[in-house]
Amino acid sequence: MSKIVVAGLLLIFVVFVGLAALLVRGGGNGDSANAGSPDKAGGIGGLFGGETFTRENYAELVSDPDAHEGAKVDVTGQVFTPPEIVEGNTGFQMYIDPENSDMNTAVLAEGTDLGLEMNDYVHVIGTVKGSLEGKNAFGGKVSAVEVDASKVEPVSAVAVVDPTQKTVQVGRTLSDQGFSVTLKKIEFGRKTTRVYVSAYNGTGTGASFYEYSAKILQNSRQFDQETTFDYEVKAPQSELTAGVRTDGVVTFGKVDPSQPMQVRFEWYSENYNITAHPIVFQVTP
């Protein structure tokens, strides 16, 4: 077995022996009397109480959680252990960087009705309590950032894996011989581009609308439709009977959000007497 595979298994089987104790001692409220208190840990909480860690600067927090006790966190990530419930509190571990199984964080929240399951994506707001140490399934020492959560809410996978950096609202409809396409908006993520569309078959006969035929043309580059395996989106239906409308998202690779582009869709008619023409949108961000 390769070293990479072994390392992956070590991450997958992380089990903190201290998590149950964390649940028992209570907390789970980022606004509790001790959170960020100047008297706690010799004033560390008061020193860092105005500091906030997000995905962008979380690596700094991971490097030394105890040095930032009392700081705030506002992050998204993926739950990778079954949530534990003890004495009215819920504890779970999450990766702030799920793609690389990195930035391990142990979260404690008040209540037992969070509705979380393993592999869910969540948004957590809370307070740094320091570091939490334990052992993995192989007896190795592991550590994580300990967070006392004041808010835990489920979010979509795309909000964690490839959050939107810019959105261009288009809201325009173009037609060809009774078949129409509405380009609603375009979301530009760090790695992918998401095009929200609606297609309507008003031709009076069957028609096809294949997402894999879609293209984005920008300068001298062509971006073909790409299926992403990092998150799921609802794709538009491909086979449309007369009078049927479909809505969905077509995904592409990373497109420059600052440059004009053409977004091109193709459709096909079951009536061989109809020659379908591409429907092309000119988009200027």
By CATH reckoning, the class of the largest domain would read Mainly Beta
Please state the second-level CATH architecture of the largest domain: Beta Barrel
Quaternary organisation: single chain
Series of H and E elements: HHHEHEEEEEEHEEEEEEEEEEE
Task: Please report the total strand number as a whole number.
Answer: 18
Tally of distinct domains: 2
Radius of gyration: 24 Å
How is the main sheet built? 5 strands, mixed, barrel
Main features:
single chain, 18 strands, four-stranded antiparallel sheet, 285 residues, 5 helices, elongated
Summarize the helices and strands and which ones pair or pack.
Blueprint: H1 3-12, H2 19-24, H3 44-48, E1 52-53, H4 58-63, E2 72-79, E3 84-86, E4 89-97, E5 102-110, E6 121-135, E7 141-154, H5 157-161, E8 164-176, E9 179-189, E10 193-201, E11 207-209, E12 215-218, E13 221-224, E14 239-240, E15 245-252, E16 261-265, E17 267-269, E18 279-283
Parallel strand pairs: 1-2, 5-7
Antiparallel strand pairs: 2-4, 2-6, 3-4, 4-5, 6-7, 8-9, 9-10, 10-15, 11-14, 11-17, 12-13, 12-16, 16-18
Overview of this structure, please?
This protein has two domains: 3-156, OB fold (Dihydrolipoamide Acetyltransferase, E2P) (Beta Barrel); 164-283, Immunoglobulin-like, CATH 2.60.40. Helix 4 links the parallel strand 1 and strand 2. The longest helix has 10 residues, at 3-12. The chain has 285 residues and is mainly beta. The model is unreliable at 1-17 and 27-48 (pLDDT under 50). It is 11% helix and 45% strand. The strands form four sheets. Strands 2-4-5-7-6 form a five-stranded mixed barrel.
